[in-house]
Amino acid sequence: MPDFAPTTLFDAYGRPLQYLRLAVTDRCNLRCFYCMPAEGIQYLPKRELLSYEEMERLVGIMAGLGVRKVRLTGGEPFVRRDLLPFMERLAALPGIEELTLTTNGVLTAPHVPALARLGVRTVNLSLDTLDRRRFEQITRRDELPRVLDTLYALLGAGIRVKINAVVMDGQNTEDLLPLAELTRELPVDVRFIEEMPFNGGSHAATPATLPWHHRRIREHLEAHFGALSPVLARPGDTATHYHVPGHQGRLGIIAAYSRTFCGSCNRLRLTAEGGVKTCLYDQGVLDLRALLRTGAPDDAIRAALTQAFRHRAANGFEAERQRPLQQLSFESMSTIGG
């Protein structure tokens, strides 16, 4: 690897590149209906996925462009073999200051001690309900007990947990308050996410007509907890967090479909097959796998990433408008990388 000489890469709107969401697989052991269609998706052949060595090389290049935080996503990261040795190598890369992951928790609990040894400080845990029957209806799998085992294992190891719950009209809105109540006794962030169109098909709602938009979610929480005052946000935060007096944890709302946080976005996504998305809503702007496998040197990859990031859309609405008409049906979230 060349001498590490980090720079700070900015886009045309003055937003820095600091955060990479890296999908290590498109495969998942759950079948959440809001993430993929009922019939599932066609998984990529192994040869079409980036190897760990290719990912490590790309993360090293991105660290030189300003990336300091890497979040591993999927699919479900732990369905890919040898994930922890790969994480060890990423954590050792010059410039990488924070390594974390998003998981559904089904396979995670046995690996919690290793995550703690790696210095993982926070983990995002996808959990849309505390009701076992509804969990099975949403995920098409009866795995809630294992997910809760992971939650308590993470907390026991001193790893802060951010619970991500997608709010779905007619599916789990009665679960918002039970999930929020977890913050009373546990040092967790419970974040409620607007439902997005990434289920492998089209989405009937618009941000204006979404049944459970961020304002309604807040009103629902305030009817139970009283007025919520936002906690000061950090640069690049997607969630608006709220502290409830007397609670150990915090509540949060992520306006993922309303896209209220685009102005401070500091991230890009790398899909499992090597596609770069500079916005969750774009169609993919760069094929890094092709560059890697045709022998491109680091300088050429760095230049391509710089070009792509500097020309990214102003916000998610612009990125969506720029999608070709034939691509307006959105892909599955498991292929995007969360």
TrEMBL record:
SMART domains: Elp3. One of its GO terms (biological process) is Mo-molybdopterin cofactor biosynthetic process. The keyword GTP-binding applies. S-adenosyl-L-methionine binds at residues 34, 75, 126, 196. Its cofactor is [4Fe-4S] cluster. Binds 2 [4Fe-4S] clusters. Binds 1 [4Fe-4S] cluster coordinated with 3 cysteines and an exchangeable S-adenosyl-L-methionine and 1 [4Fe-4S] cluster coordinated with 3 cysteines and the GTP-derived substrate. [4Fe-4S] cluster 2 binds at residues 262, 265, 279. The keyword Iron-sulfur applies. [4Fe-4S] cluster 1 binds at residues 28, 32, 35. GO terms for molecular function: 4 iron, 4 sulfur cluster binding; cyclic pyranopterin monophosphate synthase activity; GTP 3',8'-cyclase activity; GTP binding; metal ion binding; S-adenosyl-L-methionine binding. Its EC number is 4.1.99.22. Residues 12-230 form the Radical SAM core domain. Pathway: Cofactor biosynthesis; molybdopterin biosynthesis. GTP binds at residues 21, 71, 102, 162, 267-269. Pfam families: Mob_synth_C, Radical_SAM. InterPro entries: Aldolase_TIM (IPR013785), Elp3/MiaA/NifB-like_rSAM (IPR006638), MoaA (IPR013483), MoaA-like (IPR040064), MoaA_NifB_PqqE_Fe-S-bd_CS (IPR000385), MoaA_twitch (IPR010505), MoCo_biosynth_MoaA/MoaC (IPR050105), rSAM (IPR007197). CDD domains: Radical_SAM, Twitch_MoaA. Keywords: 4Fe-4S, GTP-binding, Iron, Iron-sulfur, Lyase, Metal-binding, Molybdenum cofactor biosynthesis, Nucleotide-binding, S-adenosyl-L-methionine. Belongs to the radical SAM superfamily. MoaA family. Monomer and homodimer. Catalyzes the cyclization of GTP to (8S)-3',8-cyclo-7,8-dihydroguanosine 5'-triphosphate. HAMAP family: MoaA_B. This is GTP 3',8-cyclase. It comes from Hymenobacter gummosus. The gene is moaA.
